[in-house]
Amino acid sequence: MAAVVAGAAALRLIDLGAVRLDPFYDAAVRSMGTSWKNFFFGAWEPGGSASIDKPPLDLWLQVASVKVFGFGSTSLKLPEALGAVAAVGLMYSAVRRVWGFAAGIGAALALTVMPVEVITARSDTMDAVMMALLVGALLLLIKACESGRTSWLLAGAAVLGIAFNVKLLETVVALPGLALIALLGFQRAVPSHGAGPASHAATPGSRESGGPSPEAVTPSREAAPSWLRDRAVPLAGAAVVYIAVALLWLSATLLFPAHDRPYAIGSTNGSAWNAAFVFNGLDRIEGKAVEGTTLLYKRGRRFVSASAQEGERAQIPPPSPTRLLKGGGPLPIQRLGLELLVALGLGLPALALGFKGAGRTQKAVSLGLVVWLLTGTLLFSAMTRLHPRYVEGFTPAVAALVGIGVAWAAGALTKRRTKYVRAVVFGAMLALVLAIPLAASVKAVKDHVSDAGNVGALPAAELGKLSTYLRANRVGAKYEVAVDSATKASSLIVRDALPVVVLTSYQGQTLTSVAKLRPLIARGEVRYALLNSSCGKRTPRTDAACSEPALWVRAHGRDVSRQAGLTRPGVLWRLPEAIG
Fold first, then answer.
1. How far apart are CA 105 and CA 117, in angstroms?
2. pTM, full prediction
């Protein structure tokens, strides 16, 4: 197992700094490090006028990392990579407790080499940390079912609530399965005199592979246990703990007056609740385009938009029952689909055939994993807008069933053989099943593949010239620049860590109107505007480029892009009242 964890660390940490960063979240990490208020709210820009669209728990880890190791590519991604490594160990512990050593090793290896997980763990997003928390919740719920201790049950519910604060509704993919484990497998242990513990039933061959841990026993119970006391009350308590922890940060934001809270990017009213449940919930499932601003950047001899770049990154086949088994796009079959096929083809039969003679915990966990797997498969096959990193919501269930299925198949083929023969066959089957995913993961590491977004990115040479010009001509202004979109200045914030005036949020919703902008200009608090966009006949009216303040800047400002050394016009504008 130490070798497996070492392999997981190697795949996730080797040349980690070479993987490109996500300017949007990195800007937030930079801004959050400037004040405790920005830290709490997950502020996107140092002035604290706007915040990211999610709870900032994962970014808190990134802020801590950059405070210790310095602001850089490796330190920004280190929490994700380490979280994914920890998930491998947690996966082994969870599966081994119920199905034995072989299944635990198989599940850990399946998660270790799963390409989509490796890519996500090396990306500057929060999905890998969320996935690790889901595996942690699974382990805690298994311990709760084994021991009958309410403390483990509540701890599992709390960890699941923390996972919600990392990636919101993506965690709900795991919720039905994990809830089923608690519902079917937990019964509070009560003192029982003279009754010894009864061992859990295990699948055929599990004891030869190491079997459940000694403490994995059914708790003793009174002859006539109280259903209300021993099951309903603890489960209701777990539900309350989950909801309370899940909504803790969102509720805490309401302690501040509305005018004192940053505007949550993506929301329609500035509320973090709206951003959490509408922008990151219904809009994602329905496939609404959320990165809708037009940011121009150069590709060869022509300019294309960042929305086009986002589209290329997200070119996943349209919804269909076989979507996760397709060969092309950023989520080809070798990155997830092959292991999913093994989970369905071997894992499901293994659980079904071992179900009859299984104990309470094993039955509950079996059904929970099946529900978790099928929920993820159906959802990610059907949802309109899918990024590869979203599938981290069910990769633990895939890996668990791969390990269980391969261990069961190897045991069935070598039932009358020696332990040595069984071990060789099991190893050979694992190697056969995981060879292609391992090769795909190694290639992804070599190619520095990332699944992070690229919202607000600017070419390095252009960014340098823009930063140099603005800092040289700032002349005591409070804000470095006004920006027409709530994401467009991300690279600039990462570089300079200076406040900016945000003119619009997503879909061109005005945050700083012309009436509010003019006094800022008159007081000398802002002198330049970064538009880097155009409002043409075919540009949607909801685009930031066509917003009222952006149109006003073009009509009254002066294009100084050439003076700043930029190769294209219309990027940087001198605001009118600031013109001498």
1. 17
2. 0.89
